[in-house]
Amino acid sequence: MSHNSSSSAFLDAVPSNAARFQVSVINENHESSAGADDGTDPPHYEETSFGDERQNRLRISFRPGNQECYDNFLQNGDTAKTDASFHAHDSHTNTYYLQTFGHNTVDAVPKIEYYRNSGSISGPKVNRPSLLDIHEQFAKNVAVAPGSADRVPNGEGMPGDEQTEDKEDDQSGAVKFGWVKGVLVRCMLNIWGVMLFIRLSWIVGEAGIGLGVLIILLSTMVTSITGLSTSAIATNGFVRGGGAYYLISRSLGPEFGGSIGLIFAFANAVAVAMYVVGFAETVVDLLKESDSMMVDPVNDIRIIGAITVVILLGISVAGMEWEAKAQVLLLIILLIAIANFFIGTVIPSNNEKKARGFFNYQASIFAENFGPSFTKGEGFFSVFAIFFPAATGILAGANISGDLEDPQDAIPRGTMLAIFITTVAYIAVAICVGACVVRDATGSMNDTIIPRMNCSGSAACGLGYDFSRCRHEPCQYGLMNNFQVMSMVSGFGPLITAGIFSATLSSALASLVSAPKVFQALCKDNIYKALRFFAKGYGKNNEPLRGYLLTFVIAMAFILIAELNTIAPIISNFFLASYALINFSCFHASYAKSPGWRPAYGIYNMWVSLFGAILCCAVMFVINWWAAVITYVIEFFLYVYVTYKKPDVNWGSSTQALSYVSALDNALELTTVEDHVKNFRPQCIVLTGGPMTRPALLDITHAFTKNSGLCICCEVFVGPRKLCVKEMNSGMEKKQAWLIKNKIKAFYAAVAADCFRDGVRSLLQASGLGRMKPNTLVIGYKKNWRKSPLTEIENYVGIIHDAFDFEIGVVIVRISQGFDISQVLQVQEELEKLEQDRLAVEATIKDNESEEGSGRIRGLFKKAGRLNITKPAPKKDSSINTIQSMHVGEFNRKLVEASNQFKKKQGKGTIDVWWLFDDGGLTLLIPYILTIRKKWKDCKLRIYVGGKINRIEEEKISMASLLSKFRIKFAEIHIIGDINIKPNKESWKVFEEMIEPYRLHESCKDLTTAEKLKRETPWKITDAVLEAAKEKSYRQVRLNELLQEHSRAANLVVLSLPVARKGSISDLLYMAWLEILTKNLPPVLLVRGNHKNVLTFYS
Fold this sequence. Notes:
The chain is of the alpha/beta class.
């Protein structure tokens, strides 16, 4: 028999949901197990139920013998309360288990809250338990913060974690639209424009029914492909407000999104003016017929247009709910007008209509109108260019994506259905009007046929009318001549006029709403900082009132200018550019093969999207070539501007994904190419620690790796792994960002290790990728080695040995002041904090000064004076005073100057290369690369090599020949013949004094004492080692004398690095060599390659 805990002890972590696993907090106590059996039965687990009943939850049972493992989680033996007395916020007197699937664990089950962004409008973002929380040793005394009993086990947030919502995006209670009212209605209204009623009949007359339908289908193909691409992008994650701008920017990045977003918003704003002017022109035509003109046609259009746009603005500002109601009303009127046309085609025609070319459905008319009959100056593409704008408007629903209940469902469904319905309507109207109305008609009822007249195949003649004179003189009726054919054919003409009003006003209203919404989303992203003012929204729907006013001003301006015929082609091209980029976005995201590209809408193809993008670009030139050129120029200018400004955003665009794929492909391709000496370049690991702490070391390395080789700034964190990893991970992005900000082309890498040498050893072996692996280690000279612990010296020399073991070259850089400026950075950080505190107090004082009496203010000033954070005295630098108070002012000033010395342009001077030992040519290659850099190009190379005194000229000629074969320009060659003579006594005495504290002097002691000293201090320099290396020691001291003589005034000295044999040369003796060799010199690079050729004279 198994023992179960009380069924009343379960506490819901979340509201009951049949689709989710249940995670429960279970109370258990010791007394409840008193009646348990001896535990011979195997553990029994009750069924898991996913039903809605609260009492039917997942339970776990255990044998009493195993209860000890659970007892460890109880706090001080306290028993848990039953469900009747348990409260979710009562954690001080209760003890309970945190249970997932019935097991004691803080590991979390999958929940949507973990994947939301901060400030999500659909719900709060919560944090799952970190890997450390579930990986580290579990604390015996589990303390749960108040209110987190049902949060921690489910990962809903760690105790104390509070998520703040973005108040600006808080849309609780906002009006949201479904796919019909939000997308379908808007798209249909925007696609069905005035073109349907006044130009479609002319297009059928020019192109014929066959080509007319082809034009409609070709236009629909462009919009359908764009609709499929839009649907794919819209279903690849949560869609916020911004429509086309949001879709493009999140797919291709801010450069494309920012450029197209601005012109798309502007195009919508100007489109308001175009649609309103179309409405005003229709009204003015009616005024002409009734002889009711107000002023003159042009000014009447301006007056009516201005009044109309003010009314539309009022509807928009009233809120999206009113605007949606107006759109539905306009759609009903439009549908009635279209139905009115189809009804009119079956109503028997009268003599007046027949004289104007309408004969109802006639096969002869259909046959006559099926083929094209282009008039002079017209052709297929010109007619296509006129019709295509009638097919646009498919983004009307997507443009208000922020106001949709479910954009991912509404945009694909509403957009594609709207394209289908409107296309069917266009084709039906084209076929019907082409089968009912002849191309030319006189309008005269007297033009009937004469008996025995030869009709010559004319459909009108066969129907009793002679319109043959239209071949010689212009006629006013028929498909080719009368733009009011649909009104004539319809059952009730005024309904067509109402349809025209509905089409123009609905399109104007949709554009008036779209432009501010898109513009607001663009401004919120702060891509154009000057436009941030328009990002603010008002009310529960976050309405962009400022954007409405701006759109109103633009629309009103173009209505008053009344030059829309010129700008209309540019606006059409702006829309087409948006379509092209949406298609390209879909293709690009698919081509990048990012795992994050998982659109729920699967009816798309990347190559079809690419074809759609190309097609859109081609249509732009078909419509108007100069407008297409202007569009591309504007878009390119905005793209360059946004790229230059580099907005601080990261949207995980497909551009980033493709960059990764390209880099990966190139890296893999590079592995198939064998290394060649001609392509050798220094690829460096630089032990800078944090890159900002040793800038000079990084600068000199960057000088010969920039744009040519790999540079990795490395840092080793030594200490407890948990603390090191936490510190390392927290600073990773900050330090890489510092490199980018300072335009240093380098990577940052860090490792956590038990000791410094182990960390460097790991970096030497594991850094890099494929062929892009480090071949050179760059380290700063350890200036304070005589004051450092022995272990640090062993590690320092040890990493040089390790580099040689791994066949990696070594460069040791020494400058007079040293590299580490972390002390200066710390002082600067403290000064910045003090300055911020001072400014904060001053701001508080100013605020209080305006509100309170002078007595209170004097008290605040006195308090500020005691805190020493008032304004500093004139002509005194607080930073200098602070540093001087630390007794490091002068030192820090020199250190800062030294840290910047390689950032400056080096004046005319020399780089002295002491190529004493052949290491494969790295000692020569590095200074050569420096001389071709902008900052070092004024420095000449002087080459110093060792030689025999009696062969100086021959060896100089030989070296000059070698350098010329290497194609390395040099200013001078010096052959040093006296390197191997003994140094002078003063120099040698300095060296001996330097190593004296580290000598063992075992020869002066008896054998027993000497052996004891060797065991106790194995790191000391023995007399035997010193004697064996005496010649090398002489050489280092002598070289320093020669360097002082020849290279004291050089800008940089590059010198062959001496190599110490492992186990033969004491670490301290080696450090003494490096010290005496580089003492009192300009900046020095001690270089030793891996003894493999890095130079060649073969082509």
